[in-house]
Amino acid sequence: MREIVEVAEAPLPILAVSDFKLSGWISVCHGVWYNIALTVPTAIFLVFLLYQSRKSYWKLSYGRSYIMIAYYGLLWLVSVLNFVWCILQAWQCTPGKEFSWNILSLLTTSGMLFLEVSLVAFLLQGNNHTSGLETLTRTFVISGIIVGVDIFLKTIYVFGFGVDLFIDSNEKTSLVKWGLWIVHKLLLTATYGIILLMHHSKWRERLPARPAFYKYISMMFTFNAVALFACLLMQNGADFGFWLYNVTVICYHAFYLPFIYITFLADFFQEEDFHLENAYYSEMKDAGFFDADWG
To answer: Residue 109: CB partners within 8 Å, gap ≥ 6?
Structure first.
């Protein structure tokens, strides 16, 4: 009887290893629902971008806006990086993958931060339909400096001091890690908060007169304030802070890029439809297509 039990139990570890290879990428670390919540929205948004790519290409080609071309290309690049980051969550818990995960996380978060900073920097300069290379260069230089400093500091702490800044597969409290994230979220919250205060001050005229801009700023201020609160809870060892922090991670990686597209780029493409119709009408009128209407 004892031998039968031993034989029956022997294959179980092999089956467990096989299951891990087949489905471990979605079930390990944070669990199935966390990974699904990250992966599904990012995949849907990528499919949407691919579906709209041909139409967007022609609109951008006609508009010849360097700013919109640059941001659309950057949005594509960051979206692909973010999707790869979402589907490779299991790397956090895979021995030997720590270095690869840190590199991927650094590239992904830096790309999203560059998009976030450059968008605010550009909109604060005025008209977001400017097509000049000077505005684009100035915006990207400012954003590049800010994001470059951020990358430099994160690289030192992750690879120099061994701080698990991008590994959230456990709930161990790290004062250094959460202290860094507190500073990071505090700076972002303060930036968006200052812009909101400017909107209600005598410097209001220096801000772009676009309702979408203030909705975006309000949403980002609220989001970063919640993320800051979650980091503060984690700094003090509160279990609820880890859950809240995971919610903010899902919201940022799954919905921030679609939020940018809906708030700014979709509006640009819709306006381009109007300009294209006017252009086609003018060309047809010059060619004499409407002369019969006056006969």
So the answer is: 166
Check the CA dihedral 181-183-186-187 and report its sign: negative
Read off φ and ψ for residue 291, nearest 5 degrees: -65, -30
What lies within 8 Å, CB to CB, of 249 at 6+ separation is: 38, 168
Q: What is the pLDDT along the chain (295 residues), one digit of tens a residue?
A: 444 444 344 443 333 333 344 345 566 677 899 999 999 999 999 999 999 888 888 878 776 678 888 899 999 999 999 999 999 998 988 889 999 999 999 999 999 999 999 988 887 876 544 446 788 888 899 999 999 999 999 999 999 999 989 988 765 567 899 999 999 999 999 999 998 888 777 777 777 777 888 889 999 999 999 999 999 999 888 889 999 999 999 999 999 999 999 988 887 766 544 454 444 445 444 444 334 443 4
What distance in Å separates the CA atoms of residue 162 and residue 151, rounded to the nearest whole number? 15
Type of residue found at 214 = Y
* Nearest-angstrom CA–CA distance, 116 and 257: 10
- Output 80-85 pairs: Cβ under 8 A, ≥24 positions apart: 80/46, 81/107, 81/108, 81/111, 82/42, 82/108, 82/111, 82/112, 82/253, 82/257, 83/39, 83/42, 83/43, 83/46, 84/108, 85/253
pTM above 0.90, yes or no: no
Rounded Cα–Cα distance for residues 176 and 28 (Å) = 25
φ/ψ bin of 205: left (φ > 0), alpha (ψ from -120 to 50), beta (otherwise): alpha
Q: Which residue has the tokens 């456990």?
A: 170
CA-CA distance, 149 to 171, in Å (whole number)?
28
Q: What is the spatial distance between Cα 102 and Cα 285, in angstroms, rounded to a whole number?
A: 59
